[in-house]
Amino acid sequence: MNNKSFKAFIIENKDDSGLIKTLALEDLMDGDVTVKVFFSSFNFKDGLAITQRIPIIKRFPMIPGVDFAGEVVESYSKNYKTGDSVILNGWGAGESHYGGFSQYARVPSEWLIKLPNTFNYEEAMILGTAGYTAALCVMEIISRIKANKENKILVTGASGGVGSICVYLLAKLGYVVTALSGKDKDFLINIGASHVLDREEFQLSNKPLQKEIWSGAIDTVGSNVLSTMLSQIRYNGIVASTGLAKGPELITTVYPFILRNITLAGVDCVLAPYDKRIKAWKFLSDLIDRDILKTLKTLNCLSDLKKLAERITSGKIAGRTIIDVNKT
What we know:
- By secondary structure, the protein is of the alpha/beta class.
- It is built from nine helices and 15 strands.
- The chain folds into two domains: 5-115 and 289-324, Quinone Oxidoreductase, Chain A, domain 1 (Alpha-Beta Complex); 130-266, Rossmann fold, CATH 3.40.50.
């Protein structure tokens, strides 16, 4: 390939909030596959990286963006050839390796999977890391709790990317879903929530055990919301934990685990093995109605990233925000 120039959003140091720069292919980091990126998605973690409220970025300079979808333009891997459509989710992209807010990316081939035939590039990033993470969480619920009208599932942070897709997937599978959120009630009902519980209605508690309410739950919030939720899970239930929007601390006791036999399952999307990723994307391919993706989507460009970072870390974004990296 010639050493063509391209645009990327780059953060130079720990005191920088980022800017769009022109780079050359030789500026990219090591990897055996180079990808022409079409879309990335915007996640809470990306907002934290750009605002640097939490030290997400492990080295500088850094191109943030934890995922992307695009076309292989150069490959030294036997698993990918020029013209292949691929997705990347996680693996330290946007943290320790140049990420998706760029018109080109170069990464190790083992970080990639092929784009499912069900989705185009834009649809894949409407789902993105949030959709893939939601699939992993819902698969944890399925492993323990049967889908029927008796089993109530609570989803916290339900207006966000992971939460909203969890609500949709669980409802489609036949669970009774309660969405915990401070906003967007109509949006959540439209995507499948049976009930929307306002954050102000959710009474935080330090009690080790409360009345059994939920057969299972998916938590994207952490902190005392997760602590309270654990005390309300029914016997033999499960909580899939995958976020810390409210904080990383967890104050609880062993009582819910040994007296009610519940499981607290951590869900990691960054280093999940290849087979698990393929299974999660197959799960999404089988369940997602492509028309619903349009109702989740807001489209933005690279020049919007700073504004989006402030909004998402302030809880002012619902659904899925995608970035057309070829519009600056």
